[in-house]
Amino acid sequence: MVMTNFGAVDQNTTLGFATGDLKGAVAATLLGAPQSGAGGTVVFRVQHHWVTESGDAITVDPAAATTVPLSNTLFAVVTYPVHITGGTGKFAGATGDITNIGEADLVKEPCFAIPARSASRHRKTASR
Predict the structure, then answer these.
(1) What pTM, to 2 d.p., does this model score?
(2) Angstrom distance (rounded) from CA 35 to CA 45
């Protein structure tokens, strides 16, 4: 599970924690204002920052969270793929994808709540 709160760093950056295999600290920065998407969706473009409990970093590509507005401040996540591109320590050379579900609440805490079971396992690939 991942839970973060807006305003912990600044108005565009969340800060929180992850449990499970990727346990540690997580932050996400909005890369601009939310954009209108197809079918009335709202798309949040996000850059994640992830450091595991052991101090290893996980690097990821910028991500897009496609949501459906439930109110002016509450959004249900429809799709939110995150692509792991590497990291440090045991995540050096790792690649993989995490498929997220949950919600974004721009007023209450937490902002994002993502069940750990939605995450695919990371895999480490050999350096070429």
Answers:
(1) 0.81
(2) 8
Report residue 76 as tokens. Answer: 């249900």
Q: Does residue 113 register a pLDDT over 80? A: no
Torsion of CA 58, 32, 34, 7, to 10 degrees: 70
- pLDDT value, residue 111: 55
Q: Measure the CA–CA gap between 29 and 14, rounded to whole angstroms.
A: 6
For tokens 């996400």, what's the residue? 28
Would you call 38 exposed, middle or buried from its count of C-beta atoms within 10 A (0-12, 13-18, 19+)?
exposed
**DSSP characters for 63-77?**
EEEEEEESSSSEEEE
Which amino acid, 39? G
What confidence tens digit (pLDDT) does each residue in 19-34 have?
998 999 999 999 999 9
Chain position carrying tokens 């996000």 = 46
Q: Residues of 6-26 as b/e, b for ≥16 C-beta within 10 angstroms? A: beeeeeebbbbebeeebebeb
Under a CB-based contact definition with an 8 Å cutoff, are residues 24 and 52 in contact?
yes
Higher pLDDT, 98 or 126: 98
